[in-house]
Amino acid sequence: MKFQLEKASESYLVGVLLAIAGGYLDVYTYVCRGGVFANAQTGNIVLLGIRMADKNWSELMFYIYPILAFMAGILITEVVRRRFRYNPGLHWRQIVIVLEFLVLWVIAFTPSGRADHVVNSAVSFVCSMQVESFRRFNGSAYATTMCTGNLRSATEQLFYYNINKDRAALVKSLQYYGIILFFIVGAVIGTAITRIFLEKSVLIVCLFLLLVFVIMFIPPKEQEREGA
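The structure corresponding to this sequence follows.
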């Protein structure tokens, strides 16, 4: 049972759903929570450096908080993994999904405005848990909350295919590009829904997480048949 849950968590279907959720969350914080991207921290680190160079000390915490929240998400994920790695019931990644679900549920009922910096930090926390927990599909490393690494891997595999005519490399390349495409799909869906439902639109991501939670109980071969 544990082996099936482990394999199911690394299925391509799970990767697709989480990529959609990742694209959606990036749009959500940009459209509804102050025009920021909370998924990855490179931008926050750069902006932190700019504020320090300008000696604008009063705004430092706006960038420090999400960075610390991202770090906290990584640490808590590792604690969950170590504590529940051999849990006979739920897989430890399912426990992470539940934690993500609960945080996003609270965010959905937090009004926009003064609390946006707290919400963005919470989204950073959620994204770090997701990117730390779900790092492989079909044996390949990937990310579901950012695209740079996926784009590099996709293009690298495409190069290998052109050189060696290895169809396995082509398949991997297309899978990576597929993850990027579904990230964009999530961003498109997120833009349309967030503009209408504002704060509560993040509940759609809760739905995707619920689907991932359930899918992890399905053996990978059954997932492939359903997707066929």
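Residues 167-197 form the longest helix (31 residues).
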